[in-house]
Amino acid sequence: MKYDVYFYEAFEEEERQLRHFLPSSVKAGFTYKTIQECNHTDPPADIISTRTQTIVPDEWLNQVKAFLSRSTGYDYYKTLRRKAKPTVHFGYLPLYCNRSVAEQAMLLWMALTRKLPVQIKQFSSFDRDGITGREVQNKVLLVVGVGNIGYEIVRIGRGLDMTVYGVDIVKKHDDVDYVNFEDKVSMADIIVTAMNLTPENTGYFNYKKLKNAKPGALFINIARGEQSIPSDIKRLLDEGILGGVAMDVYPFENELGMALRTGTEVKNPELKIVRELANYPNVIQTPHNAFNTEEAVVRKSEQSVRQIEHFINHEKLLWEIPK
Q1: Rounded mean pLDDT of 167-177?
Q2: SS (H, E, C) 11-25
Q3: Cβ atoms of residues 61 and 86 within 8 Å
Q4: Confidence of residue 199 (pLDDT cuts 50, 70, 90)
Q5: C-alpha distances in angstroms, 8 versus 133, 213, 221?
Q6: Quick one: three-class SS letters along the chain?
Q7: What CA–CA distance (Å, rounded) separates 251 from 228?
Q8: Mean pLDDT calculated for residue range 207-221
Q9: Average pLDDT of the chain?
Q10: How much of the chain, in percent, has pLDDT values that exceed 90?
Q11: Is residue 145 exposed (0-12), middle (13-18) or buried (19+ Cβ within 10 Å)?
Q12: Total-model pTM
């Protein structure tokens, strides 16, 4: 192996922080690309670290000693673990960006509430027609998935004097007002998903689920792209059921990211609709960046290096993905 560890999907700021924390004794390689974009046929290191868009070749599962996910979720790594030998280690990072993602959700719903994209566009003419937004005080915020990120969203909503409800199978926070989604969807001014991804909630936010939403409600997805169906979201917008949508995550994101980086056309029909939605004045799309603040990148990089050093010294990871 050429390196001790190889980081895929490491953007500039993250690489800089990783290099800062890595000891000189650890030989590391970096790229902002995915494995498939690099066309790597053989693993370049004993430890491979990826984020969200890389597809790990099956043959690597028995050649690499450890895989480290730098994503907030590790659903994909659970699948890989089931296919790999028992001796291959799969690791994750503990909480490093729950506040960052929660603040991004708030940023997105505030921008939509105040019609910020249209405001910016109309500056050139200083036209103030059609850009009267709303305040969020006393508005109803429905947070679906009240884990670590969802709980931060609940706290932020309360700080803005909103009426906040949570939806979750596991009710681990005593101070959250838990409700059934169907009971409050027609009252919610803003719906935010912060769920982890499971087979049961794939496609959860479909037309049937949201057709009873309060007319003009905003839908924010900073969780997993597979939870919402772009064609259904478009229909809900076109019919005026949803008043605005913000997305930081997307289904088939590896295909979408590669197409956008290379300037090639997407072939998946749902991704074609994602591209169409970019032209809607009441839609905001960001490049899976909710996790990305200076503070979160420092925490993520420090924890990644701790994982790597521990594996090199002990042949196991500090934070192993449960079997």
Answers
A1: 96
A2: CHHHHHHHHHHCCCC
A3: no
A4: confident
A5: 41, 40, 25
A6: CCEEEEECCCCHHHHHHHHHHCCCCCCEEECCCCHHHHCCCCCCEEEEEECCCCCCCHHHHHCCCEEEECCCCCHHHHHHHHHCCCCCEEECCCCCCHHHHHHHHHHHHHHHHCCHHHHHHHHHCCCCCCCCCCCCCCCEEEEECCCHHHHHHHHHHHHCCCEEEEECCCCCCCCCCECCHHHHCCCCCEEEECCCCCCCCCCCECHHHHCCCCCCEEEEECCCHHHECHHHHHHHHHCCCEEEEEECCCCCHHHHHHHHHHCCCCCCHHHHHHHHHCCCCCEEECCCCCCCCHHHHHHHHHHHHHHHHHHHHHCCCCCECCC
A7: 8
A8: 98
A9: 95
A10: 90
A11: buried
A12: 0.91
In the chain, the domains with their CATH numbers are: 3-96+294-314 (3.40.50.720), 98-285 (3.40.50.720)
Note the pLDDT tens digit of each residue in 129-145: 999 999 999 999 999 99
